[in-house]
Each structure stands twice: as C-alpha cells, then as structure tokens.
Input
Amino acid sequence: MLDVYLPIAEISVNAPLLVAAGALVGFISGMFGIGGGFLMTPILVFLGVPAPVAVASMTGHVAASSTSSVLAYSAGRGVDFRMGGVLAAGGSIGALAGVEVFRWLRLAGQADLAVALAYLVFLGVIGTLMLRESIGALIRRRRGEADPAPTQRRPALLYGLPFRLRFPRSRLYISVLPPLALGALAGILSAVMGVGGGFILVPAMIYLLRMPAGVVVGTSLFQIILTTSLTTLLQAGRNQTVDIVLTGLLVLGGVFGAQLGARASSRFRAEELRILLALIILAIGLSMGLRLILTPGDPFVLLPAGA
Output
C-alpha cells in the first residue's frame, strides 16, 4: 500500500515510511547538529536499498535538513558564517577526493564492505567516547559535584601555523589550516558514508578549535549544507547513484523534522541527550558491523546496473 518505485535503486518501498524516517532523522539532525546521515543510511540499507545508492542519495537529504535547521539557528545568531565557509572550502576538497575513492570502491565491488567498515570503526569509536563522557557528567550532576573546569589554554597548533584569520563571531584568531583539514575529513566522510560529518566536527570544533558552544551546532550545519550539496552533484554526475525519488521523499520529512529538532534542542539536559545519541550511534555502528559476519538471508542478490 502506497509503495513507490525507486528508479535508481530498482526496488519498491513504502512512501509514508520513508517520509516518517526522514522526519525522525531530520529531528535528530536539528537537535544535535549532526547531519543525520549516519542514522538514515543504515536504515535505507536495512530496507533493501543498495549501499552505493543509499550513501549517494542521503547527501541530498542531509543538505536539505541542515538548511532548515540553519535558518532556525541563524535567527538566534548561532552561526559563524566565516568559519563555516572555511570548513566548507576544506569539505569541497574532501568531497572531490571522496567521490573518486567511492567510485573506485564501487567499480572494484567493495563499496558495501567499505561502507560497513567505515560505520563500524567511526561510529564505534565516537559512540564509545561520547557515552563515557556523558555518563561521567550525569553521575557528577546527580552527586552534586561540579564539572571539571575547562582548560583555557588553546592548542599551540592553532597559533603556530601560518595563514591566520579572525573569526569575530567565534572570538578566534587562528590559522585556517586546522578548519580546512577538518572540513576535508568531513567531505571524505560525506562521499564514502553519506553523512554530514557533524558527529566528528562538533566535538572537534569545541575541543580543538575552542569555538563557543553557542555557535558550534549552527556553524557545523552550515558547513554540512555546502559540503553535502556538492557531494550530491558529484555523486550524481560521476557515479550515477543518486535516486531523486528516494531523496525527495526523505527531504519531504527531513525539512519538517529539522525545524522541530532545532526548537527542541534547548529543552533537555545536555548530558542525557548525549547519552541517548551515543547509544544510537553505537547501535548503528554495531548493526552495520554485524552485517560483515552474519550470513545474509539471501546470499545471491542481483544489484541494479551501476550500483
């Protein structure tokens, strides 16, 4: 009932289910400033969408959801557009490289393996670190203990490198090289995993770049818009793996959910939300990893041409 045919993925899926999934992921994206692709891509794979199509089609959804969220954050002056532009410049370089790597993996027949391994490693590490930090913060709060005072010492790397630039909104005067490198990493992850890279960028912007917490989420989302939009165009032109019908259904729900997520982000305790997000990240990473060792229900599957 209400199934729709995806021409690139060459499968039929339930349209309301995809819209609802897009809204849920958009909500998470708006709340945490993390693109949401790390969650949606595995969902699509579990629904039977080939991994190359899921990865390439997700970037369009991530871009649309992030745009919706940035509109909400910019109204409250929560976006450093200059820093976001530098991160996006690095992201463009990373996206170009990542799309070529993804094309090579797809032609070699290793795209599914690479996607699963990337999710297992990145989400496993990030989820474990986030869960450890969040549980510690929750325990300290319930015991009435104060959080450790944050160090005021800024990494010497930021000030020892050339090409320094002022970022008034973030109150920083640092080299553009570290933000460029972080953006490039996000661009590669966008092409290979179908994610915005916010789950790595947000902690790095706080602990490495020392950006104020009030502008981190909005700036991360602004960078994600530019990087994932370029990635979508590159994937469509270079690999022909973007399913516009699939992307459209996800965007339909994602834009609405992202607005709700951005508004809800200030209504919950930060450590409790981080624990929930960490558990989701670990569950997704482990489930993708299990696909590497479990015997599939149907070991012989004919993928669509070019997938």
